[in-house]
Amino acid sequence: MNPKKLAADKAIEYVTDGMIVGLGTGSTAYWAIEALAKRVREGLNIRAVASSNHSEQLAKQGGIPLVPFSDIELIDVTIDGADEVDSQLNLIKGGGGALLREKILAANSKTFIVIVDESKKVEHLGRFPLPVEIVPFAESLTIRQIQQLDCITTIRTVEGKPFVTDNGNLIVDCEFGKILDPIELHKQLNLLPGVVENGLFPSMASKVIVGHLDGSVELIDSADSMN
After folding, report:
1. Could you give phi then psi for residue 139, rounded to 5 degrees?
2. Is residue 58 classed exposed, middle or buried when 0-12, 13-18 and 19+ CB atoms within 10 A define those classes?
3. Which of 84, 102, 133, 197 is labelled catalytic?
4. Start-to-end C-alpha separation, the chain
5. Cβ proximity of 125 and 84 under 8 Å
6. What is the pTM of this model?
7. Where are the alpha helices (DSSP H) in the chain?
């Protein structure tokens, strides 16, 4: 039983005819795109926007109709994964390097559904290094400013070369330890010149769907998480 697929299958139940759907990026979002493509082949009428070049290609291969961002004003539902989810539904995202585009989609969605397996649920964010997207210009100066917030930084690499996002930027993975105030840290990071965006998604998720190894699926609503 694949917990990621279980969560994705549950999430697409919220997609109905006529919707504009935001497509996330990563190993869990992949299952949502696959499941949506199957429903489209069965007659579901939707249009979609993608958070990365990779997800766009997956959608095209699956026959999901894509629409330019200039043609829409709002996204009905975005379905995406996360690297960590805490008890208040704050998220760390960006393990796949698409955090900026993912956040733009999430912020412009009526409903933002996050799909994860049970290993991604944590008491406090921070076990997973926080991705921060920075511009390449004077990168060392920006990284020094980030380090002043008390973290250990590593420039993300792939096969020995710096990882470059779809936006032409770099990713710095930051080890903060326990992140006790994600809203404040989110603000502090985004005030730094050179930082484009960071992987904290505080209070943005409408619902979190958790797939479990035993085959069960857990649904957590944002309203419930505040109680």
Report:
1. -55, -40
2. buried
3. 102
4. 31
5. yes
6. 0.95
7. 3-11, 27-41, 53-62, 99-107, 139-147, 182-190, 222-225
Collapsing DSSP to helix, strand or coil, 6 comes out as helix
Give the chain's domains with CATH numbers.
3-122+202-214 (3.40.50.1360), 130-197 (3.30.70.260)
Instruction: Work out the pLDDT band at 87, boundaries 50, 70, 90.
Output: very high
Q: Does residue 161 sit in helix, strand or coil?
A: strand
pLDDT-above-90 percentage for the chain: 97
Residue 125: is its pLDDT beyond 70?
yes
pLDDT band, residue 222 (cuts 50/70/90): confident
84 classed as catalytic: no
Amino acid type, 46: I
Give residue-wise pLDDT tens across range 134-156. 999 999 999 999 999 999 999 99
